[in-house]
Amino acid sequence: MTIALTGIKRGKLKRKETRAIFHPRQVLDVELSEPLPSLGVNSRGRYNEALLLVRLHSYPIAQVMVSLERSLTPEDLAAELWGALAPSVNTFLKRHGLAPADGLADPQLEALGLSLRAKREALLGRAPLASIVICARTHADNLERCLRSVIALEYPRYEIIVVERTSKNEAARQVVERLKEVGMPLHYVPLPSASRNTALNYVKGQFVAFLEDDQVADKYWLLRLAQGFERDKNVAAISGAVVPAELEFQAQVWGEELAVSSEACGFTPQSFSLSTHEQSILFTAPLFGRGSNVAFKTSVVRKIGFDTTLETGTPISGIEESAVCFDLLLAGQTVVYQPSAIVRHYHPRDVVGLQLQLRAEGLGLAAFYLRCLREQPRLAPTFARLIPRVLHAVLGSKHRVTKTIPRTLKTAKRRGFLQGFVAYAQSFRNKG
Questions:
Q1: What is the CB neighbour count within 10 angstroms for residue 380?
Q2: What is the DSSP track for 38-91?
Q3: Please, where in the chain does CATH 3.90.550.10 lie?
Q4: What pTM was computed for the model?
């Protein structure tokens, strides 16, 4: 039997877990339209499980956790994945006007691939200029890793703007200068205050996409964003999926188990507007994906701008992207969740770093709500109706959070949430 858990489908080969000894989890991509790999042949002993991001013609279908307690041949893996994902695959086919498949060898899958490839090539031939803003705030090695993923994107026309969000960082500048040698149009902006608004002054693209330096971009990330904007001219913002880059340390596994986005977003595209989703205005975090992977139509975001009371460097630590989505929705614009626009996030490797990350998430969520109510007091009744759902997100779902997670981590987001109201008031006062 296949069991769904926290947005991750677990295969029937799942072993009984023993938490006494931690084993890292292998993170892999699997493409259903290509020959499947053998798993566990060279990794047993180090990895007892593998988290697979399963795709069909480069589009994500689901994340699947499989046991590596025994080696899996390509045939074993095919049976495991089809048993777990047949409904998800058929839902994907239905979105493209096709009948359900009876297996991974169904001719429809190959025909769909040819159609999607033709559309992709057509878009690449007329691709609009895109701007990528990378917010640098951690170690220079992280920035270089992020930049190298961006340089490898399958997209013909884009520029890169690196904004230093903390203080002048000579190491970050050196990374940018070194990578300029590959011929990419890189700009370095060492201005920590109002960084995203400052970055907009350098943007030349038709749309602007934001990344954090502890992320890496999927090969098709920018292409999928461009497809989203082209598909509907009324779309003002697109948020993509955020999946783990590695699960090599216990803190990273806990970070993924505690992540709101892993249970709420999934891999089904969604469109939000005032006419279709009343509550989405106030509950953007799960529904819109992660603000660390978001793109805006340049002409629209320049008019609205980013709220500097919510940026990194303030007591809030940054949630300004969600505020922009809120403003766009109120202005009658459409915001889209496009899960095929994927970035991978590196959770902190240690408990202290994870605790700070979780606290920042709770802090930002509370500040976001307070900012929404300050801007639109009429939404107070809507907010009141959402309180149970908000508390569920902040406190975490008891059925999915393992008992072995330290109490300090389980309560970090809650403490941050409670502190967020004070932090926003302080940030707003400092702005004034």
A1: 10
A2: PBSTTTTTT-SEEEEEEEETTEEEEEEEEE-SS-B-HHHHHHHHHHHHHHHHHH
A3: 127-431
A4: 0.88
Distance CA 204, CA 182 (A): 20
127-431 maps to CATH 3.90.550.10: yes
Give CA separation, 84 vs 54, 78, 221, in Å.
11, 10, 26
- Number of neighbours of residue 114 by Cβ within 10 angstroms: 9
| CB distance 283 to 382 below 8 Å | no
What phi and psi, each to the nearest 5 degrees, are found at residue 167? -150, 170
- The two tokens of residue 352 are 């202290």
Tell me the average pLDDT across 80-99: 94
Burial 330-369 (b: 16+ CB within 10 A, else e): eeebbbbbbbbbbbbbbbbeebeebbebbbbbbbbbbbbb
Residues 6+ apart with CB under 8 A from 395: 413, 414
Asked if 30 contacts 51 with a C-beta cutoff of 8 angstroms, the reply is no
At 420 the pLDDT is 82
Is residue 167 very low, low, confident or very high in pLDDT (cuts 50, 70, 90)?
low
